[in-house]
Amino acid sequence: MTVKLLTIGEFSRAARLSPKALRLYDELGLLRPHAVDKWSGYRYYEPSQLDRARLIAWLRRLGMPLAEIGAVVDSPPAAAAALVTQFLKLTEAEFAERQQHAQLLIGYLSEGTRASVTASAAAPPLSVRYAAASDRGLVRERNQDASYAGPLALGGTDGPAGPLLLAVADGCGPAGELASAAVIDALRTLRPPTAAAPDPRAATRPGTAAPGTTGENPLSEPADLINALSDVVAGAVAAVRSIQAAHPAGPAEWDSGSTLTAMYWTGSQLALVHIGDTRAYLLRDGGLFQLTHDDSVTQAMVDAGQLTVEEAWSHPQRALLVKAIGTLPGDAETPALSLRDPRSGDRYLLTSDGLTSVVPVPVIREVLRDASLSPRDVAARLIALANEAGGPDNIACAVADVLPASDVIPAP
Questions:
Q1: In terms of domains, do 208 and 342 share one?
Q2: Residues 99 and 187 in one domain
Q3: Within 13 Å, how many C-alpha atoms sit on residue 204's CB side?
Q4: Do residues 254 and 247 touch, judged by C-beta distance below 8 A?
Q5: Model confidence over 13-62: pLDDT tens digits?
Q6: Model confidence over 315-350: pLDDT tens digits?
Q7: I need a surface site. Which of 206, 221, 340, 384 has the fewest CB within 10 A?
Q8: pTM exceeding the 0.85 threshold for the entire prediction
Q9: Strands 126-135 and 161-172: what pairing?
Q10: 82 and 26 share a domain?
Q11: How many domains does the structure of the chain reveal?
């Protein structure tokens, strides 16, 4: 029995997709026509292709990127449902973050500073267990990655323990190690907008901090915290520029800079700053969510549907950045800044691309899910996995577990 083929116009009306969309899906390999007229180039479709077309249309209405839709429509029903569920969880997390920002702004504009921090004040106290590590890898001669995890000193390097900082920076260029170190050193100068005397009754085990009891004012205005982070990144840019200017060859020849991903806990607030292709991940309730968006050429191509995530792994331009500190002008040095809502049980990972470029995300997720591993163990295991995969680049990791404040050991 011969099946009557549908013209692109007929198929478009039946699937409720425009001919332009169908041509795009053909180019991306999502929905190939059954036949193409070799003379006119006109596309023809089988009626049986309507189910796939309608599924693509539904996924687009959900807002799913084209690069992710391919994996869904090519998967068995159960696996496809799991992928849609994962996308929904990530979308809900992103919406919750935007909602939090909007509520802070509404409170600030309508009721003033105090109203905008009420939610933070009511949040239960938490403690954080943390670790950071960096490794040269097996190929590079030098380690241009830098990592840091620890409390900041409120009164200078010898002052009382203050807010907690986690940071990973990936240097690039002839002296990338100087650039990444300068970026993290600049972040370590960050101070909370307001500070009170530390509580002498609280003490923590090494590698553990309680942001809600660390001597800073937990009611600091979120807008002030974002502004402080923006200022300290501007200081990092200036530090890298000054190193470039002092180089004998001059800044034009000494084209070095750094990426940055950092988390800053103060009170019950968690601020995230990001620029480049270092990443932040959150493990929550068994699901792993990427909190940052790579500022890279290949990520832009993935977003546009020109590459799949798998193709981006081996693309020759995968190391090219569209944002970084010290190597690109103007807005290309402006970081993404956001506030997060930490919960007890969360596990955060900051990492350079020396890990994510060679170790698949599902493998990283399984390591993070292992509750028997401490943050130090997790960092060591991830670095070992990167080296087992060839270690082609430097690797840096910072890991933090969010715990109830009861895990803090009181001073005798």
A1: yes
A2: no
A3: 27
A4: yes
A5: 888 888 888 888 888 888 999 999 888 888 999 999 999 999 998 888 88
A6: 777 778 888 898 766 556 788 888 888 889 999 999
A7: 206
A8: no
A9: unpaired
A10: no
A11: 3
